[in-house]
């Protein structure tokens, strides 16, 4: 029964995100709307983390399976990718390091700010 409640909460928020996507003329994916709604509800303590934790962890555990079709698609198109393989790999590696650096610096800034506020 607990999982059913958690799934209902998560999918309900996802459906609200889908509705927002239909009515707001921005090029923002519906899932992003849903994630921001869930974040807002968790931050405002309208929904407790324990209300969605088990199902959220299950979905996170299953997430790597969602990348299998994309990987298979890349393997199927390898002949077409050969022509641009070096730039493709260079862009992938560069953008990965860029995202990691920006994420790390942002997290560092947030932690430093919290430390300063705590003093």
Global shape: extended
Average pLDDT metric: 92
Number of alpha- plus pi-helical segments: 6
What profile does the largest beta sheet have?
Answer: none
Tally of individual domains: 2
Assembly type: single chain
Helix content: over 70%
Strand residue content: under 5%
Element pattern in H and E: HHHHHH
Q: What this model shows, in words?
A:
This protein is an all-alpha fold. It has 2 domains: 1-76, no CATH class; 78-119. 78% of the residues lie in helices and 0% in strands. The longest helix has 34 residues, at 85-118.
Q: What's the structural blueprint in terms of helices and strands?
A:
Layout: H1 2-23, H2 30-43, H3 53-62, H4 68-76, H5 78-81, H6 85-118
Helix pairs in contact: 1-2, 1-3
Task: Please tag this protein with its features.
119 residues, mainly alpha, 2 domains, 0% strand
Task: Give a quick precis of the structure.
This protein has about 120 residues and is mainly α. The protein contains six helices and no strands. It has helices spanning about 1-25, 30-45, 55-60, 70-75, 80, 85-119.
